[in-house]
Request: fold
Amino acid sequence: MRAYGHAFVFVLSLGVFLVILWLVRRRKIRERFAILWLLIAFLLLTASSIGYPYLFKIAGLVGVPYFPSALFFLAIAGLTLLVIELFAWVSKLNDRTRVLTQELAILRERVEREQSGEEQKGTNVS
Reply:
């Protein structure tokens, strides 16, 4: 039973790795996240091939009686880190958007002032 689970996890990890490579080649994932996703896929692939027998031992040492629950814990911990990274990125983008909006408003006001100043000069000359 363990051999089938091992093969299933390996094939699934390999599939995830290949999909990520395909998305990177198609430029569907930006460079910032491509490295992160490739690292995650590589770790999954390594854990499912070389480290698979060790995962059982580590789960036993930690005191996890049911091995799949240890895998779920690792997956949830990894996704939590990914969500934290995404929230940090979104927060940075929100700050940049706010600054750009303020700069745009300032530039728009300057242009309107210059245009109204030119119109007043044009009416004074005639």
Remarks:
- The radius of gyration is 27 Å.
- The mean pLDDT is 82.
- Residues 67-125 form the longest helix (59 residues).
- Residues 66-126 form one domain.
